[in-house]
Amino acid sequence: MKLCVIGTGYVGLVGAAIFSDWGNEVIGVDIDSAKIEKIKAGEMPIYEPGLAEIVVRNIGEKRLSFTTDMAEGIAHAEIVFICVGTPQDDTGAADLSAVLAVAKQIGESLTDYKVIVTKSTVPVGTNERVYELIRQNLKSPVEFDVASNPEFLREGSSVEDMRTTDRTVIGSNSPKALGILKNLYTHLGTPIVECDLRSAELIKYASNAFLATKISFINEIAQICERAHADISTVAKGMGLDSRIGPKFLRAGIGYGGSCFPKDVAALYRTSTDQAYDFKLLRGVMEVNERMKYNFLKNVTLHLGKNLSGKSLGVLGLAFKGDTDDIRDSVAIEVVKVLRGMGAKLKVYDPQAMYNSKRVLGEDNISYCLDSYEVMEKSDALFILTDWKEFGTIDLSRTKNLLANPLIFDGRNMLNVEKVQNMGFVYFAVGKRTNGVELLAEKDKVYQKAVLNNDH
Ligand code: UGA
């Protein structure tokens, strides 16, 4: 099939690459000419395992090409995918300006029947607006259909996710468009949900909001664990073995981030209020997520005090999660900013997100290290803020020798409590009654006793 993919971000670039790898002829379009030139030269604008090889191979085999000329891309294709960004606007809603601008241009360029498919995450009713906008901008009467085909790719594993998806959702009010899109995906052998436009749009938001709910739920259970001497990993394991619950997205930590969950949860909440409905549960999900980093930081301030000037802190992880260089809405970045705001000097390392982080954080009181061990040198404490696998296997005796103080704040539960504590570290994690938490409880007891004896 002949396809055009507009937008070469995470969704568009991975989509274009995999579609071409399935044997389709694909043109990727972007207004950013520097980006297009880089991609053509095999240099990926994002870190995504496996992507470069697929792009380079398919360019070489002439199934995949890139251009900044949208009309050229559209003229080539039977199916046009809109894959541009829908960031959060000031009101919490999705900013649709890029999607609508592309729709207008598609209208101006259409000369024969095509299916226009929105892959960007857009609120209920957007595809109807896209249809109208295309219709209004047609230069001559042309038949076309619109469809919603949301993607469920995770950054860091999007290549794998697209090849082995759990399901494909295709929403359209046109049986012809549904048939054409089904042809593109049937070979995957996984379920295809055919539905109306609006249901497809909502499936995407409901899925992301539900996953975010799972995370906020487990993060609240973690708070109970810490106080009630239980262990969150064990509780999550015990829950996850129930097939009705499932083990995924039950990893407690300092909260979810990234370019999707925070904006999509906020946008769905906004949709609910637009529909005169207060989605209370979702409001709680957002509040809990915001609270998680402060719960984590509370242990830091109780242990080290609120004034961190004179302290040198080591930070492992800046990306919003492991296996990506993306720092958009990264909780790690927010925590780094708070620690710096409290006067600390920071040494930081992330396997992929150093360049992006430097652009956002600058160099004021932050030095960027070459590896995890450089971060540790003479640091008064070590922070783990992103779940990169390599942080879970750091050499603990080397860590202890390098740190000025054997103190670890683990915001992603990457280390084994017993092992770390047996080696003499003071350790804080999330949802675990560690020796660090015991120390704070002891301090609190002394304080309570002092209060009772009036000698504080
Ligand atoms: C998410 C969804 O998982 C994808 O299905 C969806 O397509 C994508 O958003 C999107 O809308 O484009 P992504 O943002 O790449 O994908 O990342 P996730 O792997 O879902 O992680 C999101 C955040 O939740 C990260 O900060 C991660 O650290 C956190 N998380 C995840 C937890 O704190 N605990 C968990 O158990 C799982």
How are the SSEs placed, and which strands pair?
Elements: E1 2-6, H1 10-21, E2 25-29, H2 33-40, H3 51-60, E3 64-67, H4 70-76, E4 79-82, H5 97-109, E5 114-118, H6 126-137, E6 144-148, H7 158-163, E7 168-171, H8 175-185, E8 192-195, H9 197-228, H10 232-240, H11 261-274, H12 280-304, E9 312-316, H13 331-341, E10 345-349, H14 354-361, E11 366-368, H15 372-376, E12 381-384, H16 396-402, E13 407-410, H17 417-422, E14 426-428, H18 435-452
Parallel strand pairs: 1-2, 1-4, 2-3, 4-5, 5-6, 7-8, 9-10, 9-12, 10-11, 12-13, 13-14
Uridine-5'-diphosphate-glucuronic acid binds next to α9 and α11.
What is this entry, summarized?
This protein is an alpha/beta fold.
Structure report:
By secondary structure, the chain is of the alpha/beta class. The protein has two domains: 2-195, Rossmann fold, CATH 3.40.50.720; 197-456, 3-Layer(aba) Sandwich (Rossmann fold). It is built from 18 helices and 14 strands. It has helices spanning 10-21, 33-40, 51-60, 70-76, 97-109, 126-137, 158-163, 175-185, 197-228, 232-240, 261-274, 280-304, 331-341, 354-361, 372-376, 396-402, 417-422, 435-452; strands spanning 2-6, 25-29, 64-67, 79-82, 114-118, 144-148, 168-171, 192-195, 312-316, 345-349, 366-368, 381-384, 407-410, 426-428. Strands 3-2-1-4-5-6 form a six-stranded parallel beta sheet, with helices on both faces. A six-stranded parallel beta sheet has the order 11-10-9-12-13-14. The chain has a two-stranded parallel sheet with strand order 7-8. Strand 1, helix 1 (10-21) and strand 2 form a beta-alpha-beta unit. Helix 9 runs parallel beside helix 12 and helix 11 crosses helix 12. It starts with a strand and ends with a helix. The mean pLDDT is 95. Uridine-5'-diphosphate-glucuronic acid (UGA) binds at residues 121, 151-155, 208, 211, 215, 249-251, 253, 256-258, 260-261, 264, 320-321.
